[in-house]
Specification:
The chain is 90% helix and 0% strand. With 146 residues, it is mainly alpha-helical. It has 4 helices and no strands. The longest helix is centred in the last third of the chain and has 44 residues. The model has no long low-confidence stretch (mean pLDDT 88).
Length: 146
């Protein structure tokens, strides 16, 4: 057994990280790195789009466009976090498994947890907004019938 396996076995009720689990985690880390890079690219493109939208909104003074510009700025800021968590996960898991450093491995798993927590909260917020928009839409449609 290597050092990581021995440390994990002592701390977690005989939990072992087998070679196949290591391979799966390293493959997951590679995909997470790819998705994080794509996420950072799309965040940059959204930031550029937001900048153009803000400039256009301020030049024209068109109110709804100003609101959309602020929405895009908020989405740009929100898009940074999942990509950041994924790139940290990928780097720490890879470094931890390759060097048998428990602290690096744990930091990677912590960032994976943070990614899923952020994604879950983001999903709840958007589902809530969809429900509110459906209720408002149905309510305004019903008020036109009467």
């Amino acid at each position: 057994m290597d050092t990581l396996d021995q440390n994990m076995g002592m701390d977690s009720d005989n939990l072992k990280v087998s070679q196949s689990v290591k391979e799966h985690l390293l493959t997951s880390a590679q995909w997470a790195r790819f998705l994080a890079i794509v996420g950072f690219i799309f965040t940059g493109l959204t930031a550029i789009g937001s900048l153009f939208m803000v400039i256009t909104a301020l030049a024209t003074g068109f109110g709804p466009l100003i609101g959309m510009a602020f929405l895009y700025i908020g989405l740009t800021v929100a898009m940074i976090f999942p990509a950041l968590y994924m790139i940290r996960f990928a780097g720490s898991i890879t470094k931890g498994l390759n060097s048998n450093k428990q602290s690096e491995f744990e930091y990677g798993v912590q960032n994976l947890k943070s990614f899923y927590k952020f994604s879950g909260i983001f999903t709840i917020v958007f589902l809530s907004l969809y429900i509110i928009l459906i209720i408002v839409g149905v309510g305004s449609g019903m008020s036109r019938l009467f």
